[in-house]
Amino acid sequence: MNNGGFFMQNLNLSQKEAVEYSDGPLLIVAGAGTGKTTVIANKIAYLIKNKLAKPSEILAVTFTEKATMEMSERVAELVGEGIWDIWVSTFHGLGQRILEMHGLEIGLPNNFKLLNEIETWMLVRENLDKFNLDYFRPLGNPTKFIHALIKHFSRCKDELITPSDYLKLAEELQLNSDTIVENSDDENCLDNKRIAELSNAYHVYNQILLDNDAFDFADLIFYTVRLLRERPNILRHYQNRWKYILVDEFQDTNWAQYELVKLLTKGREDNVGLTVVGDDDQSIYKFRGASVSNILQFSEDYPRCKQIVLTENYRSGQNILDCAYNFIQFNNPDRLEEKLKIQKKLISRKDDVGKVEFIYGNSGNDEAELVVAKILELKKINNKLKWSDFALLCRANSSIDQFVPALLRVGVPYVTSAVSGLFRQKIILDSLAAFRLVDNYHESSAVYRLLTCPVYSLSFEDISKLTHFCQRKSCSLYEAVKGVSAGEVVLSVDGQKKVTKFLEEIKKITLLSTHEPAIKVLYKFLEESGYLRYLTANLADQQAQIGYLQSLFELLEKFHEESADNSVRGWLKYYNYLSEAGESGEEKNINTVDDGVRLLTIHAAKGLEFDYVFITNLVDQRFPTINRHEPLDIPEKLVREQSLPVGDTHLEEERRLFYVALTRAKKQVFLSAAKDYGGSREKKLSRFIDELEKANNYNWNKILDSVPLKLTTATEKKTETNLDNVLPEQFSFSQIAAYQRCPWQYRYQFILKIPTLGKGVFSFGKTLHLTLQKFYQQIVAENNVKQAGLFDAPLVSKVVEIKIPTLEFLLKIYHNNWQDDWFYSGDHKKLYREKGEKILREFYKRNSANGWTVPLSLETAFRFKVGDYYFKGQIDRIDPLTAESVRLVDYKTGKPKTKLSFSDKLQLLIYQWAASRLDNDWQWGKVGDLIYCYLDDNSEQSFLGKEKDLEKVEEEILSVINSIRAQNFNPSPSQENCSHCDFREICDFRI
């Protein structure tokens, strides 16, 4: 058999063995930095290249969208030109797709909304009266336990505990004990009352979600497992579909996720192509329900599994690895190394030996300044280092704030992963001030914030005059500003101009706020005030702020789409909810392409690596933290986890977290602490410092300056804007079309990512696309096509008479999936809604007359290599044409065309070209027809590219990609381009 090709040449012996093994279950124990992603990607490529499985017969499961993307890219690169139909997904993504396809089978909505933690908190808060809470609803703070309740319900779902299970336990406890006496303080009575209240609340919570056609994230696995257990035919379909299943970060799976894996491999445990990759020493997500016992249990569940240990580390110096390895021994005997009698000691393949040093300050401020001074010192020694080569890792989000002032004081840029970090940024604070001022003129702090922001920049002297007037007259700052035009306050000539401009613009957006959503009000303010122009004109300094603004607009857009009241006041209420709900725990990468020191929690740093790592706040009760039991523990009788550790589970988890932090470093680790963080007593050093010394017989290289090193202001010369780090690595038709229309517009949209407002016509188009997708999914399901549309390419159906859902069913899908966004008035929305209904009636009538088709595939994504980069796209529909050929269909909601130019044809020609490029992995047959389906009048345009057309497509795409990578963004202004451009108000080249 072919050994898999050149892509195997750079693997070490253990990696190669893991890639080539395909005779049964496989457990790969992959230590930190040992190339587990490389192994999984190569294994997938090996299976495909050696014809052991088709791409569609492989499922790879990861834990984050980022890991999914990286895995897909690696596999595509290894396989060659590109790949179709391989399933690389997160666990939640897998569950979501299965439920969207088959949820109706067990009475679940298939067009559910997926709620994050904050959205779930809000839903519970709005329905709090339905929970009949007493024990968990203190009068002084009725929302106090909402987070705890939600977390508890999520943990129940992670353990596959149903509301019925919980209610049954509560009933048994009540029957087996004395009657619960009202207001009794008896411990057993209170415990039973607590369980009774929780079980009822869990039941109510689930019902509220279903009543709102909503799921939380835990539901995606919880209901998928239920579906597969209750519908054996669907379970068999997926068992037969995937010959090989690969699970990354297996140590982070919870009970429900592992149960899903076992269901998909049920009945063939001895020869199933199941590979799990993980490291018990890096299991750090118990707070999310992760069960380290899963990886400890795997060998018992799959007794024929082969075990391969990866120990060659390609990241860290040997001293760092030895320090981490010797330290983690304190978790024995609850480690795989002990249980399986394997050797997990990591061997470095790096030239750097690696250093570990200790920084100790008198106070928290001293610690921060010592850390920042060390960063400046290292960067001065090696000016090739980037700020992003440094990471400050904190045990908790709240500790990040300690280091921000020191970084700001010396001008060192930083990037934080915490959501709370977004609301600390200058542009965000300015935007929130605009919202608060529009809602209430008397918000003096908002007026002050805006008058001192970059676009008004009122002088200190003029601000002082205004505030003095406020004190004298006991009025708001806004009234003082109005007093300028009345001659009551005399400002400088420049100040008077700025104040006049300010008042005019606030008046405009205030009027706008009476009938427009918050997102439009903010955009108008940024546009009218010149803020957007300021950001783009000062790109070298403001690139990070543009990224933060983009994040805010994403949040506003989601709020706009999902909230009944999307006004400024509605948004401020939502924002106050965010503040009231506190930190959600959901961390978000903000503009991670920026060059800045990374301020991260250790959990957020998992999977990342840096030259220099600072592990901070190493004092007692901060790291390790106090063993805080979950505020609401699952009753012991309901817990399903097996192989419980014999040691202190909390302390062992904290050690694993510290181990992860140590192994993020390539060259050097700095451990930092302080004697005083406030409070009456001096802080004791963390027990981990003592354990490190004992485990390693360590002679610390300590930096013990009690007085902080003097910080000097960073005086690095500002460089011209460099867009290299934000240029795309993969491209799509929409990018190509935008660049061809105007390269400068492309720069705004895809490089700088300046926020834009949506349009009602786009929402309308999205609604029609989604409606037809779901309708054709139902056609596939009703005609018993062998394989499901979103997951496979079914064979041409041999059904003589195609079963078609009713017109009423089609219209119901349409109304259920209506995108209620961006229409400029109620009449505008009504007009489009009626238009869509008319279009669908005509569509149904036309297809009923001409004959329906059972599609081979819907929303088919593809990705392949063009030169050194990747091109991706998605085909709306693939229909059978003949036994050996297919038709590619794309829906258009714009103006119908009777004559098509080459540019008009380009999108479908790209799809045809993609099919020809991916001949080995294209399983639907030769492309015999291309059709644009114009929904507006239900007309069609059919054509097919010749060889010369496909050659021209390739030339066109390569030319555009090369121009983009060369940063050729010369504007192409024209009356047509500029009149429809979202950026015309900030563009110097507009016509």
Shape: globular
**The CATH class of the largest domain:** Alpha Beta
Low-pLDDT stretches: 1-6, 180-184, 583-593, 712-721, 785-799
Number of separate helices: 37
Strand % is 5-15%
CATH architecture heading of the largest domain: Alpha-Beta Complex
Structural class: alpha/beta
Helical fraction = 40-55%
Multimeric organization: single chain
The N- to C-terminal Cα distance equals 64 Å
Mean pLDDT, all residues: 83
The major sheet is characterized as: 7 strands, mixed
Topology:
Layout: H1 13-20, E1 26-30, H2 36-49, E2 58-62, H3 65-79, E3 82-84, E4 87-90, H4 91-102, E5 113-115, H5 117-126, H6 146-158, H7 163-175, H8 187-211, E6 214-216, H9 217-230, H10 232-241, E7 244-247, H11 255-264, E8 273-278, H12 293-301, E9 306-310, E10 312-313, H13 318-328, H14 336-339, E11 347-348, E12 355-363, H15 364-381, E13 390-394, H16 404-409, E14 414-416, H17 419-422, H18 426-439, H19 444-451, H20 460-473, H21 477-485, H22 493-513, H23 518-529, H24 531-537, H25 539-562, H26 568-581, E15 597-601, H27 602-605, E16 610-615, H28 649-662, E17 665-676, H29 687-696, E18 701-703, E19 730-731, H30 733-741, H31 743-751, H32 760-782, H33 807-816, H34 826-850, E20 857-866, E21 869-880, E22 885-892, H35 902-917, E23 926-934, E24 939-943, H36 947-965, H37 975-979
Could you explain how this protein is built, in words?
The chain has 5 domains: 6-103 and 220-310, P-loop containing nucleotide triphosphate hydrolases (Rossmann fold, 3-Layer(aba) Sandwich); 113-212, no CATH class; 353-418 and 593-703, Rossmann fold (3-Layer(aba) Sandwich); 422-581, PCRA, domain 4; 760-965, Alpha-Beta Complex (Lambda Exonuclease, Chain A). The chain contains 37 helices and 24 strands. With 991 residues, the chain is an alpha/beta fold.
